[in-house]
Amino acid sequence: xxxxxxxxxxxxxxxxxxxxxxxxxxxxxxxxxxxxxxxxxxxxxxxxxxxxxxxxxxxxxxxxxxxxxxxxxxxxxxxxxxxxxxxxxxxxxxxxxxxxxxxxxxxxxxxxxxxxxxxxxxxxxxxxxxxxxxxxxxxxx
Amino acid sequence: xxxxxxxxxxxxxxxxxxxxxxxxxxxxxxxxxxxxxxxxxxxxxxxxxxxxxxxxxxxxxxxxxxxxxxxxxxxxxxxxxxxxxxxxxxxxxxxxxxxxxxxxxxxxxxxxxxxxxxxxxxxxxxxxxxxxxxxxxxxxxxxxxxxxxxxxxxxxxxxxxxxxxxxxxxxxxxxxxxxxxxxxxxxxxxxxxxxxxxxxxxxxxxxxxxxxxxxxxxxxxxxxxxxxxxxxxxxxxxxxxxxxxxxxxxxxxxxxxxxxxxxxxxxxxxxxxxxxxxxxxxxxxxxxxxxxxxxxxxxxxxxxxxxxxxxxxxxxxxxxxxxxxxxxxxxxxxxxxxxx
Lengths: 141, 340
Hints:
The complex is a heterodimer. By secondary structure, chain A is mainly α. Chain A has a domain at about 40-130: 434 Repressor (Amino-terminal Domain) (Orthogonal Bundle). Chain A has helices spanning about 40-65, 70-75, 80-90, 90-100, 100-105, 110-120, 125, and strands at about 20-25, 30-35. In chain A, a hairpin with a 5-residue loop joins strand 1 and strand 2. Chain A is elongated and about 70 Å long. In chain A, about 30% of the residues are buried. Residues about 1-10 of chain A have low confidence and may be disordered. By secondary structure, chain B is α+β, with helices and mostly antiparallel strands. The radius of gyration of chain B is 21 Å and the shape is globular. Chain B has a 6-stranded antiparallel beta sheet, with helices on both faces. A two-stranded antiparallel ribbon of chain B has the order 1-2. Chain B contains 10 helices and 8 strands.
């Protein structure tokens, strides 16, 4: 199974330097550059830890043969069946079936390719259950 | 970023705290009508509060501190003399060709996009949030040149990713929305627009009939928050709490701090209109902003499991009630001022 970068790592907030309104000594608001203050990091980390937990649980289910590899790709990209269905232009019950190994194995190549293109992976990756990193990790500079 | 800053084609990219007001200010400034971000936020009536538990974001109740996406631009577009074209698309290719055609004519174009698909965003902020605004001001090969108001420098995005971002699905789907200005008035008397902007915010904040929005919404949230540990259990309660803080500061894209932004607007208006009274309101709202931050700091300690003995849910609810009190005071006074 592919090793996962931990997104709750505080450094991940990256180099984004934001600006915000801070009152100066005279009580006047000024746009001030600088690090986002601490609580934002805390709650952002919390959100990512939650996503990681879901991804780990998804990986366990796939290893146990209860879910198809598609479930991993859906979860790691923070989607649910309804959203994935909208993106791939199908009804959500079809996507729900594809999340189960039994139906996943019977999927036509065309449908597989539709999913693979959407997640920017190869059909083989998806078919063989290789768990690649999420979409947003493709562009890491 | 490897962009050449003088390749901005004259677009006045100014970093701002919130995407929609920043895009609006930059687009108007480009047309020669100078707006600060705070002024755009105020005239566009961007301040709001809503606690809407029946709308779920990642399975958690929606709490919003600013008006619905697109409201600021809509209000600014209504100023007499302003001509703003706005379009949505069904077809992805058409959406992209029309964008290209405008860029060819050197028209900067505002877009609504989904953050999840924008490759230049730091990974930590790539959630499915579909109401992020940015301006495309040029194209270089396959790359679009973008002035994203949340970033200090201009950024780039390739065509495929931008097309995906414009056609993100889910809540607040942008459906390829693009907008651009074709005309602005030569001179603008700001007073009536400032007054109308304040009026609109007063209406939602203190006069709302609906108990979930404005001051009443804050009090409702406070009441619910006290019950969270009992109703949801400790673990879920912490998630809900973190979510409230996240909506407060981040999902407005990057440290919004909308109370402070509105305070900045009131200050600027005090200067423009010569009304010292607005400066007092600004100070009170500033205090409310400090309270919200204070609440967030407490909440963050709880989320980190480093709560101090007095960081209880009751105490946090009390903070929010204090915020409600201060904001009620500000907007009631402002309403008096509007009448007077």
